[in-house]
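REVIEWER CHECKLIST
Item 1: Sequence provided? yes
Item 2: Single chain? yes
Item 3: Sequence as submitted:
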Amino acid sequence: MDLLTVSPDPRSLWLYRMSGQLVWKFTLKDGKSRILNLAWKPDGKILAVSCSDGLLRLCDVNNGRIIHEIAINNSGSCVGWFAEDSKACQLRNLGPFDNILKIDITSSLPKLSVLPNTSTPESIFTSKTVLDSMINSNLFSEEALAIDMLVNGCSDSCLAFNIFGHFEISNIPFPEKLSRMQPLCHTTNDDMSFHAFLVDSEDHGLYLVPMRLHFIRRFGSDLAMISSISFRIQSLLLYISDVISTIEADWKAMNDALKRFMKSADESFAGDDDLGPIQLKLLETAIMGVPDASFKKWVNDYLSDRGIRAWRKIAVTGYEAIRKLILEHLIPACERAMVLVTHLRGLARWRERGVHLGLNPEMFTSIIDIFGKLIGIGHDLLWDLNKEYEHFRAFIHWIKYVLDEAINDEGAADDPQNPIETVKVATYVTQYLSQPTMRQYCEQINGDKHLSTIVGGLKESCAMAFRTAADAMKVHVVFGAPMLVASNVKANELQIGARILQSDNSIVLCAIVAKSEKSDKILVMATQISANPAVIMSQLTKVVLLSMNSYKMGQLSFIDDEKIMFLLHPTSAEGTHRVASLELQKLLAYGQEIDTSVSSDEIWARAKNTMEPVWSQCREFGESFEPVAMAVNGRKGRRVGCVLADDGQRFLVFDLDDDEEGEDEEDEEEDSMMEV
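Item 4: Structure as written out by the authors:
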C-alpha cells in the first residue's frame, strides 16, 4: 500500500493513501515548534518526524501514535532511514559461533497480549500488529537480523545513528578541520559501512564529507543482536509503563468512587455533634449492629440501592482489571525482559567477544535484579489486592444489609449462605478505607514499592548499559578528508541529492548540486569509493555541468541507480512546469575527470564539460496544475511518483515506468488526479 505525507502548515502532517483517503493527522501541540524533515522506515511501517523542539518523533503509520521520541542536541537538518540489503546481511552473519548464539528462548514464552482499549490513550500496544512487530516477533528471524539505521544530522555539527530506531549512537562530531557545519543531504551503501554527507559550513562552503562505520563489519552478527535485544527491552519497558499507567487509571477510578461516597457520608454526618471520624462511625455501627439515625439517612438517602450497586460494580471491575493487568501483562513482560537481558549478560561475559562490544556484565546483573524485584512486587500486589478485595466484599455486603434493614420495617432477613462477617468489615474500615492497598504502589513516590519509580530506574539503568556499547561503536567511526564542492552558497538556495551506486565491481558516490535559482547550471559529480576499508574515498572525480537554459531547478530525487527525476519550473511566462528524468550513466560517460588531491579549489569551478540534458519520461503541466513538490518511490513493485499542486489540495500520481507522452499522458494525468 502506497502512502503519501502532506504538510499543510509547518506544525501539521497529514497521511493519505494514494486513493486520496485520509489515514490520520498529526499536529505538534507546542505552538512554537515546527516540522523540519521526514524519513520513512524502509519497510514503510514507521515515519520519523524531525521537529524544531529538539525531538525526533517516530510515528506508527497505522494510527499516527508516537512510538518513540529521540532527543537530539539541536534541530535536525538532515534525516534519512536506510536498511542493509539481504546479501550484506548474510555476509555480516557468517561468524563461527552465530548458529550457537541464535537460540531464541523468548519463543518458548507465551506471547504478550494487547492492552485493553481502556488503557492510556497514548498507548500503541492496543494494536496486535504493533505488539507483534515490536515484542512478540522472532528475535532471530531474517527481518530481525537485517539492521536498519535512522541517521540524523543536527545543525550543531553532530550526527546520531539509531539502529532499529531505538539503539542510539549519538553526539558524533564532524571533523574539526571545518567550521560549524549543517548536514543537508546524506546517503549510504548497501551494508551501511560507508556514508557521505553534503554539508553547509559557516563560511558558506558546500562540502562532501565521507565517513566509514567500521563497527558494522567489526561487530558482525553481534551488532544486530545487541541492537535488536536493546530495541525489544526498550519496547518492553514502554509496554510495562503503559501497563502501570493503566493500573493507576483503574485505581484512580476506584479511589474516586470511594472518595465520592465518603464525601456523601461526611455531608450526612455533619450535623451530629458527637461524631468522630467517618471510620469511627462506620466501625461503631458495624460492632454495635445498631445504626443511628444519621447513618440510616446516609445509607438510605445518599447511597440507595442503586448507589451501592454502582459502587460495587466500579470496585469489582477495578479489582479484576488490575489483577488481570498484573497476571497477564506486567509479570509476563518482566519475565520476557529478564530473558533478553540474561542473553546480553552472557554475551558480555564471553571474553572473546564481550569486551570489545563494550558490554558490562555487572550492569546487566543489576538490571536483572531490578526486573526480579518488580516481579516480586507484582506478586505482593496481587496478594495484598486479593486480601483487600475479600474485605471489600464483606464491607459492601454489610452496607447493603444495613440499607435493607433501614427500608424494611421488619428488618433485613439473615442469609445463612452469606452471613455478615463483622471482623472483616471492621478490618476494611480501619485498615483499607484510609490506607488502600494501591496507595503504596501508585501514590507513595518515595516508597520501595512505587511501580513508576522502579520502572523509571530500570529505564535509566538500561540506557546506561546500552550507552557503553554505543560508546564502543563510536570509536570505530572514521571521517575522510572533506571535499569542497561549491563556495559562496546558501543552504536555503540549494537543491541537492546524493546516492551510492553499487555493483559487483565498483562502488560510486554520485552527487548532484543545483547552486541557486540564479544559476542555469547543475553540477553532477561521481567519485569512486575504495573497496579497502582503510581508504575512505578515491581522489579521482568525474564532473559534468548540465545547462538548464529555459528552466530552473525545483526539486530532484534519485529514482534508482539508473535514473534521476527533476521537478522543473520555467524561467519565462510561455514555458510550462514539468517533471522529467535523466539517465545517470549517460551523464557520467560525458564527465570530465579531475584529481581533487592536486588542488583545493571548489569542484564546481574546475568543471569544464557542459552538456544539454536529454530528458526522458517528460510530463508537462498546464496552468490549472502548478506542481510545487515532488516525491518518488523507486523500489521494485512500488515505482510511482507524485507531485503536489500549489494549492496544497491536489496531488497527481504517475507511473515511473511509463514513457508515454502527449495526449495519452494528459488523459492519464486527469485520471490520476486526487483532491484532498
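Item 5: Key structural point noted by reviewer: Residues 293-349 form the longest helix (57 residues).
Item 6: Recommendation: ____
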